[in-house]
Amino acid sequence: MEQRTVAFIGAGNMARSIIAGLLESGYPAQKLIAVDRSPEVSAKHRETYGIIANEDAVASAKQADVVVLAVKPQDMETLLQNMEGVDWSSKLVISIAAGISSARLSEMAGSQLKLVRVMPNTPSLVSEGMSGLYAPDFVSDVDKLFAGQLMKAVGEICWVSEESGINAVIAAAGSAPAYFFLFMEAMQAEAERQGFDKETARLLVQQSALGAAKMVVANPDIELATLREQVTSKGGTTAEALNVFNNKQLTETVSEAMQAAVRRAEEMESLF
Ligand SMILES: NC(=O)C1=CN([C@@H]2O[C@H](COP(=O)(O)OP(=O)(O)OC[C@H]3O[C@@H](n4cnc5c(N)ncnc54)[C@H](O)[C@@H]3O)[C@@H](O)[C@H]2O)C=CC1
Ligand SMILES: O=C(O)[C@@H]1CCC=N1
């Protein structure tokens, strides 16, 4: 993979996850720059990852070949307005922000950005990320290849052909780790109520989640429903538990939750 200099502007949770995953994959530390308006955050990047880190978005963007916009959506306009001194024409820009379209980002920057929108998720931190990518037609194949390789270094990727697909990626992957964490939190709490200490309750849940996920990955030809059925003995305990989920309409609840995430991303497009 090409080793361009990549500056992350906004070095919070998501940027940190990608940076850590990139370093783990062997991306050279001297090619990564973290910029954060908080000196404490940039100092942490220097100390923890040994990468270049500072508070100067303009100077860092000028130095970089690729600029990853990784601030919260509500901070994006101010950031890009303050970066008006940057000549964007020679740079690939990657935005990981939810709910801001590529056209709107160019408008905020005051110039047509060569932009790839990426929707990653935090498991990038442990090189198990899932990212969806979208690029407008005018972005070159070389830039698209680089963006894809960058995210592939921290997990799996999929391209979407329409920009609206990014909102569907948010619902199915960007936000998804939080759904699984919530489910595991609920299971850990109940295991504690049933008498396990906190540590053992967490171990029971996390190992079961990890094992289930690994079985899914290891058996691409087996439907998820079949894997579920293999656990579910007729008249047994699993069937009783699944009955409760079904009676409480888990499937419909999951659909509603994912639709709410898409709706919120669409609403954000009109806010920022
Ligand atoms: N956290 C997640 O799981 C995911 C987040 N995203 C997107 O990533 C972006 C960042 O989210 P998080 O990392 O969770 O937020 P965060 O709040 O952890 O990090 C944002 C960082 O940007 C810094 N910042 C804000 N304005 C700045 C400026 N003008 N110059 C330099 N630094 C500035 C803040 O100090 C903060 O450290 C958002 O747009 C979000 O939609 C996308 C996918 C997943
Ligand atoms: O909650 C959010 O808006 C961001 C986007 C996906 C995950 N976190």
From TrEMBL:
Domain of life where this protein originates: Bacteria
Molecular function terms, GO-annotated: pyrroline-5-carboxylate reductase activity
Catalytic activity: L-proline + NAD(+) = (S)-1-pyrroline-5-carboxylate + NADH + 2 H(+); L-proline + NADP(+) = (S)-1-pyrroline-5-carboxylate + NADPH + 2 H(+)
Classification via Pfam families: F420_oxidored, P5CR_dimer
EC nos: 1.5.1.2
Pathway: Amino-acid biosynthesis; L-proline biosynthesis; L-proline from L-glutamate 5-semialdehyde: step 1/1
Location, primary (coarse class): cytoplasm
Location in the cell: Cytoplasm
Domain Pyrroline-5-carboxylate reductase dimerisation residue range list: 163-268
Function: Catalyzes the reduction of 1-pyrroline-5-carboxylate (PCA) to L-proline.
Family the entry assigns: Belongs to the pyrroline-5-carboxylate reductase family.
Name under which the protein is recorded: Pyrroline-5-carboxylate reductase
